[in-house]
Amino acid sequence: xxxxxxxxxxxxxxxxxxxxxLSFSQMLWSRRSILLALLVAAPVxxxxxxxxxxxxxxPSVFRVNGGVIGGDTVFGLMVWLLYIRFVVPxxxxxxxxxxxxxxxxxxxxxxxFTRAIPRGAVxxxxxxxxxxxxxxxxxxxxxxxxxxxAPIGQGSIGGSFPQLLADLGILAxxxxxxxxxxxxxxxxxxxPLVAGLVFVFGWEPWVLFFPGYLKQLTxxxxxxxxxxxxxPADSGLAGLLRAFRTVPPASWSLLALGLIVVGALxxxxxxxxxxxxxxxx
Length: 281
Prior knowledge:
Order of helices and strands: HHEEHHHHHHHHH
Low-confidence stretches: none
Helix content: over 70%
Number of helices: 11
Largest sheet: 2 strands, antiparallel
Number of domains: 1
Mean pLDDT: 80
Radius of gyration: 22 Å
Shape: globular
Structural class: mainly alpha
Number of strands: 2
Strand content: under 5%
């Protein structure tokens, strides 16, 4: 009598790639992506308005204390205030917390877990899909903003191009860190979106405002510390950030962000592998 042959379990790497391929197109063309695409279009509209003003307004509009505000300074300010402090955390919250929560809400989590693949591969594949999707949303927006603002104040696009590359890397690091943290939140909590919004708009701004060591328990502390390092040394904004903030070395900030990504994903994978998801009727 022939014995039934059980299907061999798929390796973690192969299963992660399959989940990524399945999730990427669904995530990119989802309703959530359309709404967040409008969010990343807002800085482009603002940069376009600033460029129009620079063309039609008198030169004195872009002078402070007799000095010309260059396009690189305006660009750095937008990266710091709009992208790092708002757009990147919001993308991380709305995508990261939904990696597992959406499957539970749609009652498809058990279908994924009955496949002959490691449970952790489901989260890792969806996380990589999130990262690719958000990069495709936010980085083109940043490039357009750069080319709109760089010529202001007789700036040189070629001279500011290394700043653009550095800022692209900072935003990618921020998306990776916030996405990993909120993937863990989504795996552990029943209402992860609420917890994520409290963390981004409650905990982080409050902790960063006060001196002390609690700021080291935030993603924003290490992410914002990279901004002055990425800007030209003679930039007014870089000097302002160094004067009002304790800026750790760039190498330490990158190491801390890397540890956050690895640690949060490891905990999220362990949570998904051990937790029993009970679907509500």
